[in-house]
Each structure stands twice: as C-alpha cells, then as structure tokens.
Specification:
2 domains; alpha+beta
C-alpha cells in the first residue's frame, strides 16, 4: 500500500468543479482521498493531489455508520443482531482505519478527562 501523495489529472469531468479536500475519488476502481486541488480550468480538467486509500475499499459515509461497522466487525453476535454480514463490516472497518473517522471516539476525549470534548 502506498502512503505517499500522488497527483491525478482528470479530464473533462463536471465533478472537478465541486470536488474539495477530504472528498474521495474513484479512478479505475482505486479509491483516493483528495488533499488539494492543484490546478483546474473551465473545461473540467483538473489536477488533484491525492492520497492512495486502496482498491475496492470504500470508507463509511458518517461517524454513525463507522461506529456501527466497527462494533459489527468486532462482535459476530452484534453483526447478526443488526443484520450486517461480518465480512462486510470488517471491510468497512479496515477502510475506515485509514481515514481517522473513529480517531476521536476514545473515552479519553470525553469532557472531564482531557479538557473539553473535541
């Protein structure tokens, strides 16, 4: 897996006008996270600085979904209870690990333990 930043040139896509940092782009079935838009023009051409996430790895869309998938990935009983396949929950949980979506769900960050809740 690549950890370094890469540049992607996307030609003639309307998506390039609305894409912003921390969005995700799928190019040839490979998922990238946008770090910065380097260059764009009126034709829809753009160059993005991106971070490689992985192939076929789609992270959770919300913190609530990430928490559900993490719980289901670590407890087969819970996965069965909520109706999520264990393998699907594990894939989501692995994809979420690189995004940091669950990073601040630590009890140490709750009010009173480390200052205000972040």
């Amino acid at each position: 897996m690549k950890d370094d930043m890469e540049f992607i040139h996307i030609k003639g896509s309307p998506y390039t006008k609305i894409c912003k940092p921390l969005d995700y782009i799928v190019v040839n079935n490979i998922l990238f996270q946008v770090i910065n838009k380097v260059w764009s023009d009126s034709n829809g051409d753009a160059i993005f600085e991106v971070r490689y996430i992985g192939e076929n790895e789609v992270p959770s869309k919300s913190k609530k979904q990430a928490k559900l998938m993490a719980a289901a990935a670590h407890s087969p009983e819970f996965a069965k209870k909520v109706g999520v396949k264990l393998s699907v929950a594990k894939e989501f949980n692995e994809a979420d690990a690189g995004t940091g979506i669950l990073k601040k769900n630590n009890k140490a960050y709750k009010k009173g333990k480390r200052g205000r809740y972040k």
